[in-house]
């Protein structure tokens, strides 16, 4: 049975569209699983998702319940990560914070990646003045320091997690547009695009069905690698007081609060910092692994 | 009836003029070759006919109708092209099936067995239908490219060095396929090549190009008896006559 499924997936002569697609995914999946770091990254990201999904059951205490009688307790069997200045259990807050972190990266990716992809592909495909206008716009956004721009947007829109997401998305899409444009430039003069035009295909069809699918794998890789940066920017905004507002257990905001006690009560700032590092690393490893697995030229 | 008529065709890329005042007629069902060294503008003539090199002056008629400067759907059903490099002319992420059904979808047609039939015509059996290009050999890829050009049932096929990227043994297979297809479906060929034996095998007439102009139009038998009149054609003939031995 197991061997039968593998034969079905790896056959040289698939019998249907679905089988051909499944076979390709299987090949990429195998390449990904053969890379230990990618597996580690994938497990960390999976853990983040599970922790976020099951936060109410996993967290031993409420993330916002205060108990001033047990302020700033060091890590112990009772409070694995210690408690903060208001007596809240840091482990519980880190667990609930996973939800916020996941929401931020997911929203930014969902907003910024498609915008960048479409702007870049349209710009690269048509060239000429369309390219100049779109790339000019992209350059304007690209020329401003990311955190400062996000800071300005968050300040203008008002502090809060939704505005932080919008601000980060606005600063991330230009990089994706650049990548998509570069990728499109290498493909647009390819003979398979010319052949499709000769069949009478519209520009919309060529961009949507022929160019975008070739850009998406590099985009997925880039977005995954950028997740770490997005988390750090969100944490930075939280740290500066423009992201998540108290009492939301956002990791950056937690570090910001812990800064006041960093010399005597190191765990208050360290534990959420540790969570940020682990998750960022996880996304980096996964992104590297995806790059090796998805690159059609690199596969043997 | 003429399948293709070029009258005083000049093509430019930006400010450089690549083809100057080319006039050529190809009768329906005929097979004509454009030969010349690389850079003589022979591929550019094909690109102008297909609409991929839109910057041209003069007149181009396909099956009696003048054509515009851009690729369009009506011309697509009458005139298709096979590219030189089968490794570059197939989308790396699309199966053979996707490539062929797309052509039908663009023209609002449903499959109705067309895909299977066209694959059979080019000598590919059903096993190949759902493969990706990287699962095919060079010759098989070129067969897929020919199938893509044929699936809309065009009358005119433009061939841009269709065998020069292939191994010698595979070249012969593809040339035989092209010859059979032409006989079977009454196709008109305009073939671009620098390979004179290919011309002898596949065409009745050849036009010799040099520096963007046609210097001589001669019947293919000139390749056997050397009855060229223009000095450049003679030079080309003399250079390659050592390896002309009939069919490749």
CATH architecture of chain A: Orthogonal Bundle
**Percent of residues in helices of chain A:** over 70%
Which fold name corresponds to the CATH topology of the largest domain in chain B? Answer: Rossmann fold
Task: Give the overall shape of chain B.
Answer: globular
Query: Helix and strand string of chain A, N-terminal first?
Result: HHHHHHHHHHHH
CATH class category label of chain A? Mainly Alpha
Concise synopsis of the structure shown:
The complex is a heterodimer of chains A (300) and B (248). By secondary structure, chain A is mainly α.
Give a verbal description of the structure.
The complex is a heterodimer of chains A (300) and B (248). With 300 residues, chain A is mainly α. Chain A has one domain: MetI-like fold, CATH 1.10.3720.10. Chain A has twelve helices and no strands. Chain A is flat. The mean pLDDT of chain A is 85. Chain B is built from nine helices and ten strands. Chain B has helices at 42-50, 73-76, 96-106, 114-121, 138-150, 168-185, 196-202, 222-225, 231-240, and strands at 2-13, 16-27, 31-35, 56-62, 65-66, 79-82, 156-160, 188-193, 205-210, 213-219. Chain B has a six-stranded mixed beta sheet with strand order 6-7-8-3-9-10, with helices on both faces. In chain B, strands 2-1-4-5 form a four-stranded antiparallel beta sheet, covered by helices on one side. In chain B, helix 5 packs parallel to helix 6 (168-185). The radius of gyration of chain B is 18 Å and the shape is globular. The two termini of chain B are 31 Å apart. The A-B interface holds A 12-17, 19-20, 24, 190-192, 194-201, 205, 209-210, 213-214, 296 and B 50-52, 71-73, 76-77, 80-81, 83-85, 88-95, 97-98, 102-103, 106-107, 127-128, 130-132, 134-135, 145, 148, 152.
Which helices and strands occur, and which strands form pairs?
The complex is a heterodimer of chains A (300) and B (248).
Chain A: H1 2-10, H2 17-33, H3 36-53, H4 55-58, H5 90-126, H6 128-142, H7 146-157, H8 161-188, H9 191-198, H10 203-239, H11 251-258, H12 267-294
Chain B: E1 2-13, E2 16-27, E3 31-35, H1 42-50, E4 56-62, E5 65-66, H2 73-76, E6 79-82, H3 96-106, H4 114-121, H5 138-150, E7 156-160, H6 168-185, E8 188-193, H7 196-202, E9 205-210, E10 213-219, H8 222-225, H9 231-240
Parallel strand pairs in B: 3-8, 3-9, 6-7, 7-8
Antiparallel strand pairs in B: 1-2, 1-4, 4-5, 9-10
Helix pairs in contact in B: 5-6
